Amino acid sequence: MNTDDWLRAFAAELYQRRVGRDAARHVVAEAATHLREGGGDPWLVFGSPQAYAAAIVESIGTAPGPRPGPVRLHARGITKRYGRQVVLRDASLTVRAGQIAAVVGANGCGKSTFLRICAGLVSPDAGEVTVSGRLGYCPQQGGTADFLLPDEHFVLVGAAQGVPRGPARRAGRAAARDLGWDAESAVLARHLSGGTRQKLNLTMSTLTQPDVLLLDEPYQGFDQGSYVNLWDQLTRLRDEGRAIVVVTHLLNQLDRVDLVLDLTPAHQGGRS
Amino acid sequence: MNRLVTVAEMTLRELARRRGVILLLLLMPLTFWLIRRDSYVGQSVRALLLGISWAVSTAALFATSAARELEPRLRLAGYRPHHLYIGRMLGLWALGLAIAVPFFLLTVVDANNLRYGGIAVAMLCCVAVAAPFGMLIGALLPRELEGTLLLLTVVAMQMLLDPADAGAKLTPFWSSREIATWAVDHTDDGYLTRGFLHGMVVTVLLIVTVAGVFAVRLRRRRHLHHVPIA
Amino acid sequence: MDSDRRGQWLRGVLDLCVLALLRDGESYGYQLAQSLDAVGVGPIQGGTLYPVLLRLQRTGLVTARWREGDSGPARKYYQLTDDGRAALRHGGNAWLAFVAPVTSIVTKGVDG
């Protein structure tokens, strides 16, 4: 691990520990300056990236990331039957501004249905949902127009909020870049690869600056890099004070979420 | 207003890119015209009008089916239902006019002794009715294939029914047929008035029904309460 | 055992040393480390020094700003604030009051 690798790892550690972006930048730059002037092995000068990041967090106070704010999504007693089969029984979830909630559970346990009920696309048989502020929803698939360009999607979504074309296009491309996708190319949505189309899908749902963002397995077809970008993006949105709900069957990212709702039958209800 | 125009524009852009479909749709009125051309001009005008109705309503059906997944999220993004269906209808009417104009010129160039004003009004009726008609079928039937078959049935029925038959008035494109009779056979003005009135009433009824279907489909659900952020 | 004990002592007094060094004018991390080494406190690693500087900055005893050096890269320069000066006086006196008896006792022990 050379100096640059160490600095990168250190920056990632600070980010994981939710040190403010500006503060983290300063600390990393100062360490880089020190190493440039004095030379030496960063492992000896500063110790491991993890230990030094922990020391920094201790010095500049507890993680300055925004504490969870007011409740943005409150779903209570959600019950849904399809015919005789009960898909959801009395499911509840409360997500505050600045939190990511993961909805997990076996296939067919009603994860997507729960999300669609929260989005108001499906009516439950019982239960209520209260949403504060604007709602954004990213479906598992579909939700894009085959014969439109990415830019045209951005314009279409932007116009919903009265955003003019130019700014809507720029905002869309910027949001796409955060996912590691260059959306400027003139390719119809139908010719995009599955993963890229899903990035378009995701970009559309964040474009309206939603206060509550509902994502249904948003990473289908993503490669590893895009997957990392996605979680970085979600963390960023969370730190901006959005409330985020992600339906997922991948459990390896649960350390990055604040709440987990497990919909597997006989094990329902939220836990943190 | 901007939202309506944007939806209309995107509808047009989508359809314009489905070149293959558009060409096939145009082929139908054209072949109708060419097949009947040598025998009796009245038949070929009627076939042409039906062909235009078919082309526009099929385009409307495709556009509506394609937007099925997109519309709920556009609704969440801030569109009201009427922005979506009226915007789409405006785009389809514009497309319909673009299809009708060359065919109108075809009748002017290729046939004599017609009331061309009547032909134009009949084509306008076709376009006016076909857009909401295709949208309604697209909204009610989940798949394009089923919708296309239903449209085909309606058009075939329209072609086979005797327009004087009382039941024929219940078919959506009866107006164009009545007006075409006025334009081709130089019948009395009652044909024109009846036809025009029929076209207007059917268009309005279809728009109201489309509005109802969209309002239900994109309704705010009762279980979901929106609270503004203080 | 020596370096271990020295480390423990340093932890208690490094902030005072840094404040004292900054009394004569602003400085940056690497320079402070070198100064401490030069006066004989011993080598101070960045991993020890910067958390102290950040804590002083957070509590308002020093301020910092990024500035291009005369040569070389931009550096983060630290200055003593009035609060820092007061803390230095206060803490310095407390330290002296602490080490004087310690020195006296230890001196007897060593000499004896």
- Classification by helices and strands of chain B: mainly alpha
Distance between the termini of chain A: 36 Å
The shape of chain A is globular
Task: Look up the CATH topology of the largest domain in chain A.
Answer: Rossmann fold
Radius of gyration of chain A: 21 Å
Give me the Rg of chain B, rounded.
19 Å
CATH superfamily of the largest domain in chain A: P-loop containing nucleotide triphosphate hydrolases
Structural class of chain A: alpha/beta
In percent, how helical is the residue content of chain A? 40-55%
InterPro entries (chain C): Metal_resp_DNA-bind_regulator, Tscrpt_reg_PadR_N, WH-like_DNA-bd_sf, WH_DNA-bd_sf
Pfam families (chain C): PadR
Domain Transcription regulator PadR N-terminal (chain C): 18-89
Protein name (chain C): Transcriptional regulator
Keywords:
heterotrimer, A: 272 residues, alpha/beta, Rossmann fold, six-stranded mixed β-sheet, three-stranded antiparallel β-sheet, 40% helix, B: 230 residues, mainly alpha, elongated
Fold and architecture overview:
Chain C: Pfam families: PadR. Chain C: InterPro entries: Metal_resp_DNA-bind_regulator, Tscrpt_reg_PadR_N, WH-like_DNA-bd_sf, WH_DNA-bd_sf. Chain C: This is Transcriptional regulator. Chain C: Residues 18-89 form the Transcription regulator PadR N-terminal domain. Chain B: Keywords: Membrane, Transmembrane, Transmembrane helix. The complex is a heterotrimer of chains A (272), B (230) and C (112). In chain A, a hairpin with a 2-residue loop joins strand 1 (71-82) and strand 2. Chain A is of the alpha/beta class and 272 residues long. Chain A has helices at 3-16, 21-38, 42-45, 49-59, 111-118, 150-160, 165-178, 194-207, 224-239; strands at 71-82, 85-96, 99-104, 126-132, 135-138, 212-216, 243-247, 259-262, 270-271. In chain A, helix 1 packs across helix 4 and helix 7 (165-178) packs across helix 8. Chain A is globular and about 70 Å long. Residues 267-272 of chain A have low confidence and may be disordered. With 230 residues, chain B is mainly α. Chain B has one domain. In chain B, 79% of the residues lie in helices and 2% in strands. The mean pLDDT of chain B is 90. A three-stranded antiparallel β-sheet of chain C has the order 1-3-2. In chain C, strand 2 (62-68) and strand 3 form a beta hairpin. Helices cover 66% and strands 14% of the residues of chain C. Chain C has a single domain, classed as Arc Repressor Mutant, subunit A (Orthogonal Bundle), CATH 1.10.10. Chain C is of the alpha+beta class and 112 residues long. Chain A binds chain C through residues 26-27, 29-31, 33-38, 44-47, 51-52, 55-56, 58-61, and chain C through 28-30, 33, 45-47, 50-52, 54-55, 58, 66, 72-76.
